[in-house]
Structure formats: C-alpha cells, structure tokens
Design brief:
Blueprint lengths: L1 E4 L1 E4 L2 E9 L4 E2 L10 H30 L5 H11 L1 H12 L5 H18 L8 H16 L4 E2 L7 E5 L4 H5 L6 E6 L7 H9 L3 E3 L4 H4 L5 E5 L4 E4 L3 H25 L13 E6 L4 H7 L5 E5 L12 H15 L4 E4 L26 H7 L1 H14 L5 E5 L5 H20 L10 E5 L2 H4 L2 H5 L4 E4 L1 H9 L17 H17 L2 E4 L7 H10 L3 E4 L4 H8 L4 H13 L3 H12 L20
Bound molecules: phosphoenolpyruvate and magnesium ion (MG).
Length: 590
C-alpha cells in the first residue's frame, strides 16, 4: 500500500481499478491468468518485443537515409532498452507472480525502469519519455485491435493520467469513471473544474502518480483529503467504503435539507445563487441543487470535437438551456477558447505564452465569422427566455466597445434577413484581468453587469499559472491583492447600480462565502453540487458577522494567515469540505 498526496479538487471518495491513460488513451487491464497460461503470456511478450524491435530497426533505416547517423541515436537507445535482460526478467517475474497478463507485466516492469531513470542524478533522468515510448510500442503490439478505449469502458475505473484535456474529461462516462488522479494541474485548471461539475472525486498535482500506478492496480481517490492510495490493504478499503457511504449520505441530507430554503442570511439579506455549467445537460442537475439561474455557461464546450458548431445547432442548444431552466436568467458567455481549453484545429498557431496570448475574446475578434455566428445564435434563442450575454477576458474598454459594435452589426444583419430575434439582451463582462479590475468605473458605464472570474484574475494578479502544480501553493485567493481588487470591483458595481456576481471557483469555496458577503457580493455563480453547502453557510450568519470577518481579512497582510483564519471561521459549517493543504503554517488571526 502506498499513499500519495496531491491537490484535492473535487470532493468525494472513489475506489476502483486504475485505468492508465497515456497519450494514446488506451487501457491496460490487470488480469489474472491461469498458471497454465504463463508460457503463452511470456510468448506474447517476446513476440511484441520482437515486433517492436523490427519497427525500430526499420525506422532507423529511414532516419539514417534522410537525416544521417546523428538522428538515430535515440532510436538505438530504444533498441537497447528493449533488449535489456533485466527488463525482460522483470516482465517475466510479473507474469509469473499473479499470474498476470503480459500487458500488466509490461506496464509494471516499465514503471520500475521509469523510477530508476527518474531518480537518477545523471543525464539519463531526462529519458523518461523514451521509456514511455518503448512501453507504448510494446503495448500497441500486445493489444493490437483489442485496445480497450476510454469511450467504451465496460467496468468502473479510476483514471490515472499525466494530464487530461478538459474536453476529454467532459466526455467521461460518469457511471464508469469513478475517480481521477493526475500528475499535473492546479485547483482551477479546467480539468479540475469539469471533474467537479461531473461530481467525480479528483486529486491533481500528484507529480508522478503515473509512475507509481500500473493499469489494473486497485486505487482509492480521496478527493476531499487530496490523497491517492495505491493497492490499499483490506482494512483501508473497508474504512474508505465506510467514509464513502457517510459522504454520500451527508451529501444527500444537505441537498434535501437546503433545496427549497431561501438563500438569505439570518437577518434577511438575500443572496443570489446561480450555477456554472459547461454542458446544457447539466442544467437539470443545477436546478435540482437549487440554482436560480445560470450565472456562467461556458459555451466553448460546444467545441468538444474540435468542430465549429453550426448556427442551427447553437440556437437549439441555447434554446434548450433557457427552456430547461424554466424561468431564471441564463448567462451565456461567448467563446472562451485557447490557453488550457481546446481550440479547433488550425484556429491558431502554437504560442509561447498561451494564457497571455490570443485566447478568448481576442481569438473571437480574429475569427469574426465564428464570433458573429455565436452572437446570431444567442439573439435568436433569446426569443425563448431570459438570456444574458457575457464577454470574457476583457482587458480594456475598447474591447467592450468593439464587442458591442459587432453585436450591433449582427442585429442589423438579422433585421435585414427578417429573422426573429431578441435585440434587447442584457450585456455583461467578465472581470478576470487585473487591468479590468482596476478600471471598474470606466467599464461599468458600458455594461449591465460584471461577473468576477477569480480563476483567471488570481492567476494574472499573482503571476501564477493556474494549471501548474509546481506553483499551486502560490495560487492564493486569500492574497491581500486579490481581496483589494475584489473590493474595488464590488464597490464600483454598487456606485454604478450594476449587478456584480462572481463565477470563479472562489465563489464555490466554503471558506470564502462569509468574507465575500462582507465585501458586498450578493450574487454567486457556482459549481451546482456546492449550492446546498454554500446556502447552508449563508443561512447561518448575519451580515454584521460577515462584515466583521471581512474587516479582519482586509487588515491581514498575508494570505497564509488569512487562509487559516477563514478555514477556522468556516469549519463549523462543513468540516468535511474545508480542504486542508495550506503550506503556510502560521498562527491564525484572532
Ligand atoms: C474564471 O476565470 O474565473 C472563470 C470563471 O472562467 P474560466 O474558469 O472558464 O476561465
Ligand atoms: Mg476565465
């Protein structure tokens, strides 16, 4: 049994055999075979090895002809790795000790070599990718046409991967994928957001879980505590089954208790609770958890297949969204593609700093047809119910004006074409770039509402990549710079009489509800499953108490102490969910 610590990003507990996703996305299953099948499994391995070596020799010939002998060094190294007698002996050992299928034995033995290489201080520690390459070649030959693809999983699994794209995560069959554990990523990476939206327990930033786990190993993902337990002992499995049961009961109870209660403080201040969604199918769940509206619809997930959706499809999708909700506002965010989110093929070239590059509204301005098609679709769907439009990644007032001009153009086109549409749609912007958060007065003149995107706002303010686990400890919502920016935006909204909402993940975190209300925030848009928990906190406090907490937070010079203080403030409301992995062990504020 081995335990690994990572960053908890989606609460809950899952236990199932590992499904190791490599770049080719196929499964290695752990099968027990009969003793009598051992020689056959060893022969399968030898054949796969022979084929892999032949493939490499053929490649060497081609490369030598085209590039010369210096180009073949890496391929020769692959041949050496394949011929290594220790590796061969290890595979045989894993086949005999089970007895196991050859695929599992190859995966296990590769992990031993990988570990040896990665812990080496010499230059060969960089050769991890070559070992993985060798493993893929062997597995491809072993599995042939029987590769079990993610798309047609036959049993429950825990996904283990180096990294996952948000689109792949969104395509997971949640009845089969019970948990997720990945090497890379941070709390607000889009993969984490999707895992949370799907209610799949997940831990990210584990650094080398792919080196420790082989496909088919039993794995527990503790998405609340941020732990992954590999090959747990029987009592540990039993203990976690019990915790899983308790967690589910708790979830159901709180959901049931809170569902129809109003979201208001003890002294009667009403707080709006809407949901963030990625797919229209989530609306039903959002309504079940008590969402009054959709505060953020991340429409870029319509691009799941990397194909641009046609106007008709978009109109139907947005119409379904308003109809499914049956009354509340649906805030449709225009395409926020790029950075860690999928981008349709050929839409933009590789960039050195994609988070600072041509993403989001900038990409839309470059691809006017794409942008206009989306705006046309939204305006036509708005005939069927209350829709609001929100532009992402605004960094200057000119961008808002440009977006509004394009919207006017679109209205004129629709009018000319005699198409039925709703011209009078509330317009808002995301405040998620520090330059926007510093000029809320200017921006408030242009729009009907703001929605604060703390996921990006924090990353840009603190210069911390939200997807990079190596700097995850520096990604601090409690940083005084963040709180000061939030205060300015909320106050500017009050002064100008426009709604300010928050749709970043900070709005879904128990420990920040109280200080945010204290700052004046009255609209939250959050992960649907968190609505009952957040509502419970709101219903347990007075506005005065929230303001007192906020005063202390605003006086605090350092994020670590504020974080500890806010966790203590929130603990009585939901002990299971106040995630505890701060690296700042300082005294709490009093
Ligand atoms: C944000 O940045 O806070 C936000 C809600 O948008 P996204 O997470 O999709 O970038
Ligand atoms: Mg954002």
């Amino acid at each position: 049994m081995r335990i690994k610590k990572g960053i908890p990003v989606s609460p809950g507990i899952a236990q199932a055999p590992a499904f190791l996703i490599d770049t080719e996305e196929f499964a290695i299953s752990r099968q027990r075979v009969a003793k009598s099948a051992i020689p056959a499994q060893i022969d399968r391995f030898k054949e796969a090895k022979e084929k892999a070596s032949e493939e490499i020799r053929a490649l060497i010939e081609v490369v030598e002809k085209e590039v010369g002998s210096e180009g073949v060094a890496i391929l020769q190294m692959h041949l050496v790795l394949l011929a290594d007698p220790d590796f061969h002996a290890d595979v045989e050992k894993w086949i005999r000790e089970g007895p196991h299928n050859a695929e599992y034995a190859v995966s296990r033995a590769t992990r031993t070599v990988l570990k040896r290489f990665l812990s080496s201080k010499s230059f060969i520690s960089h050769r991890g990718s070559d070992i993985r390459d060798m493993e893929h070649r062997l597995l491809r030959n072993l599995l042939g046409s029987q590769k079990q693809q993610l798309a047609d999983l036959e049993s429950e699994v825990v996904i283990i991967a180096r990294d996952l794209t948000p689109s792949l995560t969104a395509s997971f069959d949640r009845t089969r994928v019970r948990g997720i554990a990945i090497d890379l990523g941070g709390k607000t990476s889009h993969t984490a957001i999707i895992a949370r939206a799907l209610g799949i327990p997940a831990v990210v930033g584990l650094q080398d879980v792919t080196v420790d786990v082989s496909g088919g190993d039993m794995v527990i993902v503790d998405g609340t505590g941020g732990k992954v337990i590999i090959e747990p002992s029987a009592p540990t499995q039993e203990g976690y089954r019990e915790r899983e049961k308790r967690y589910i009961e708790f979830e159901q109870r709180i959901e049931f208790e809170q569902k129809d209660l109003p979201a208001e403080t003890l002294d009667g201040h009403k707080i709006g609770l809407s949901a963030n969604i990625e797919l229209v199918e989530e609306i039903e769940t959002a309504a079940m958890y008590g969402a009054e509206g959709i505060g953020l619809y991340r429409t870029e997930f319509l691009f799941l297949d990397g194909v641009e959706p046609e106007e008709r499809l978009q109109i139907d999708t947005y119409r379904k969204a308003v109809q499914a909700l049956g009354g509340g506002d649906v805030t449709i965010r225009t395409l926020d593609l790029g950075a860690d989110k999928l981008t349709p093929d050929g839409m933009h070239s590789r960039e050195k700093n994609p988070f600072l590059g041509c993403r989001s509204i900038r990409l839309c301005f470059e691809h006017m047809d794409l942008f206009k098609t989306q705006l046309r679709s939204i305006l036509q769907a708005a005939v069927h119910g209350p829709i609001r439009i929100m532009f992402p990644m605004i960094s200057a007032v000119e961008e808002v004006r440009q977006a509004k001009l394009i919207l006017e153009d679109v209205c004129e086109d629709l009018q000319r074409e005699n198409v039925t549409f709703q011209a009078d749609v509330p317009l808002g912007i995301m405040i998620e770039v520090p330059s926007a958060a510093l000029i809320p007065d200017i921006l408030a003149e242009e729009v009907d509402f703001f929605s604060i995107g703390t996921n990006d706002l924090i990353q840009y303010t603190l210069a911390v990549d939200r997807t990079n686990e190596r700097v995850a400890n520096l990604y601090q919502p409690a940083h005084p710079a963040n709180f000061r920016l939030l205060r300015e935006v909320i106050k500017a909204g009050e002064r100008h009489g426009i709604e300010v909402s928050m749709c970043g993940e900070m709005a879904s975190e128990i420990e920040y509800v109280i200080p945010l209300i204290g700052l004046g925030l009255r609209e939250f848009s959050l992960v649907p499953t968190m609505i009952p928990d957040i509502k419970k906190v709101i219903r347990s406090v007075t506005l005065r108490y929230c303001q007192e907490v906020t005063e202390k937070v605003m006086e605090s010079p350092d994020a670590g102490r504020t974080e500890i203080y806010l966790r203590e403030v929130a603990r009585p409301f939901r002990p299971e969910l106040v995630w505890g992995n701060s690296k700042f062990e300082k005294k709490p504020l009093t």
